[in-house]
Write a structure and sequence with these properties.
5-stranded mixed sheet; globular; single chain
């Protein structure tokens, strides 16, 4: 199966998403591009205790509202996948990398994290 590559525009959009969320007071715990084996396309994975505090549907509404207010149209917004900080995938990443000074630009490939297999990933933040 063909997997599209991330390009410079994708990396910049990821940075814009994180900046917009943090400017709005959302403390991002995990932000990364991930290609999970069960999906055909890349997902921009986000996790934040601030988003854990609300229903998942409300979390997506909140993120979309923040991105829209930051000038990111639906066309410019990546496919976002919000995960709870208690999710086994997020917990496994945070257990290993939370004390790492800087994970920005770190790549993973062909690894299982928690209950998910990652074909490929590009990390911005794991705190």
């Amino acid at each position: 199966m063909y997997q599209a590559a991330l390009v410079d525009t994708d990396f910049k959009r990821g940075e814009q998403v994180i900046s917009a969320l943090e400017a709005a007071g959302i403390r991002v715990a995990v932000a990364m591009w991930v290609h999970f084996s069960e999906y055909e396309d890349w997902r921009f994975v986000l996790a934040s205790k601030d988003l854990d505090a609300v229903d998942m549907g409300d979390a997506y509404l909140k993120v979309n509202r923040i991105l829209k207010e930051a000038g990111m149209s639906g066309r410019r917004t990546p496919l976002i996948f919000i995960m709870r900080t208690a999710d086994p995938f997020i917990r496994a990443l945070r257990k290993v990398f939370s004390r790492t000074a800087d994970v920005a630009g770190m790549r993973f490939r062909g690894q299982r994290w928690g209950d998910r297999f990652v074909d490929e990933a590009y990390a911005y933040k794991i705190a």
